[in-house]
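Extended Data, panel c. Modelled sequence:
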Amino acid sequence: MNYTATNNLDPSLYQYKTRIGVVCVWIVASIIGLVGNSLVIWSVILSKKLRTVTNAFVVNLSVADFWTSLSYPWISVALLSHGSWPMELEVPCVIAAIQLYTGLGASLYTLASIALNRMVLITQTTNTYSCWYTPRKVAVMIATTWVIPCVVTFLPLLLGIGSIGYDPQDNTICSDKDGHPRGPEYNLAQSVGLYPVPMLIVICCYTALYIHLKRHFRKQKKRNSMQGKPSVCGDVEASSCLTCDDYRNNTSHVVAKTRLAISHQQLAITKNLFLVFCVFTVLLSPYFISLAVPSSRKFALYGVTIAILNSCVNPIIYTINHPQFKVVLRKIILCRYSDIPEPSNFLKSVLTLQRN
């Protein structure tokens, strides 16, 4: 569809010095995002210990962040241009816009999938969890985290709502074109299609998880106070609701209870993934709010610049806090591949070749 940009908008919405400063942030985020998320993906390739259902979603989150980070160099080119796309073809800018929208959307829906996974794992029985998370169903869930953002990105365009590429009105990033007659509708479609649903899922799941944990530990505290005995026996955590005498006198009872117990490691993983969600929410919310509110158009560049920092933050969180990933990631960073726990067949083959 052909359209003419309106003349009532300032073509210099952002000063060139401001854009240079923003570009520095984008370049740093691109480097850290590409390297950091590559390390997360490689850690799962090199260690069998990390090949769990939850980590399948974690890897998908890293793939989404890596995919998004690939767009940052081209967006930086757009930010440094003077009134028009500096290359003959605008295709790289269009691809960068697609990467930005689909990557951010996939990250949001993956966080929703992770929250649902943690809730089911901790609040439901092992059989229920196994039924929900078969390899085929997990593959479908992961595919869905990409299909929805693709639909939200491409369907409005096919219907003539909005346009993506270099935005000549603002001389800014590769995204939707504000000069399009239906540009605000496209912004609204992005905001509504990518933000509220996954956020609602995450909030509901973590709220249900919090309520479950609160009730669970309240019962343990009450039961332990009535028994007047210590709540931990060797390696058996307090969450198993067993005293030492219970463990020694009734092994079958212990087995049944420990299957439903919330292990210390699972709680640590859940807390770490909840931290990932909190950071993501803080960084991404300003951008999606700016899309939904037309009057905040000038803030959009700063909002998306804050949002892209999420692509490089997650690997840092995993390295510092995640009880499983931090061990493997540190071994990779230190090039101590032989110390990686439960090495994969691929890593074993590489190590064998090195020795020979």
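The mean pLDDT is 80. This feature is highlighted in the accompanying rendering.
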